[in-house]
Protein 1
Amino acid sequence: MSAHYEFGHSLYRAFLYGRLSAVTRARLHRSVAQQLEGLYTPDRQELAPTLALHFEHGREYGRAIHYLLLTAEIEARRFAHRESIELLQHALDVVARVAAADRTLLELRVLERIGDVHYALGSMSESAGAYEMAATRAAQAGLAGAHAHALICQAPPLGLIDPNRAVAASSAPSKSLRTMPKERAPCARAIHGGRAAPSL
C-alpha cells in the first residue's frame, strides 16, 4: 500500500468522522471500547490506553478512569513515573464528568495513586499534598474510614518534610481508625514494605 493511498485514506476517514454528530461519535467509541474490552486480559495490558481513550470519548467516564488507572500503574511499574502522574492528572480531570453519586470514591482512588507515584518519584511535598487532598475530600463526604486511611498514607512523606505535622496527621480519631476496612490500607503497608506503588 502506497504512502499516498494511506494519507488519502486517513484524510477521508477524518472527513467522515468530522461529519458525525457528537452523539453518534460517542456511540461509535463506546461500541469499539465494549468490543475491545472483551479481548482484554491481564496478558494484554497494552489495550488499556486504547480502552481508556474510547471509553472517555464514548462518555463512559467511570470505565475510562478504570483503564487510565491501569495504564498509569503499567507506566509506574516501568519506572516511567512522570508519565504515570500525567495519566493520573488526566484521570482526575475526567472524574469531574462522572455522575455525582460515584464521583467521590473515584476521586479518592485517583488522589491516592497520585500520592503513591509521587512518593515513588521522591516528590514528598506533592505526595503529601495529594494524600491531604484525599483526606479533605473524604472528610467533606463524611467517609470516616477513607479519611483515616488518607491520613495514614500521608504520614510517611509528611514525616520527611514536616515531622510535627506527620505526628498530628497520624493521630486520627480512634473511631475513624476502627471503621476503616482492612482492605483500605494497602498504601501504608506498601510504603513501609518498600514497594514503589501498591496494586489497584
Protein 2
Amino acid sequence: MHCVSLNPKGVDLETILRARSLFTGFSHRTARTGLPFEIDRLNAATTTTSNGEDFVKINPKGYVPTLEMNDGSILTEGSAILQYIADQNPDSGLAPKAGTMGRYRLQEWLNYIATEIHKSYSPLFNKATPEEVKINAQNLLTKRLAFVENQLVNKPFLMGSGFTVADAYLFVVLNWSGRVGFDLNPFPKIKEFISGFLLVRLCKQQ
C-alpha cells in the first residue's frame, strides 16, 4: 500500500492508497495540480502506516483512499478526494468550477467510473469468486465499457478536449484489465486511451 503526502499552501495531506496502479493514478493527478508530494508506505498485512499508525483509527471505514489533514480531519471516497485535489489549484483544469454544469458532468463521470466500472473489476481480483460470478461480472463490464468506447469516438477525453480527474481515474481502472485477464481488444478507442494517447496529450498540456 502507498501513501502520497501533499503540501498545498502549507496544508499537510496524506493520501493512502491500496495498490500501485491506484497510487500511480493519484500521484499523476496531484502532479497535475502542481502540488508537491512524496511517497510513503502502508503495510497491508498489518494495516499500519510506515510510522506505526493504525490505519483503521485514521479511517474507521478501513479502506482506501483516505485523505488526512493537519487538523486530524479526514476525507474519504475517491470521487470526493479527486475533486478536493483538483480544487487546490483551479488553474490546473482538472475539474470545472463548482456549481457549473461542467462540474456536474464531471461528478456524473466519476460516479459512473466508481460504481459501474471500478466495482465491476472487484470480483475478478478475488480468486475465491465462483466462475459463474466472474463471467457475469465480465459481461457487465463489457456493457459498461461499450458506453465509454462510444463516448471516446469523437473526443480525446471523457468531457471533450480537456483532461480532468475523471480521465485519470478511468485510466487507472482500465489498466487493471491485464491483471484480471479482461480482453480490451473489442474497444479500440479505449486501448488507444490506455496505450499512451492520454499521457501524450497530458504532457503536451503541461
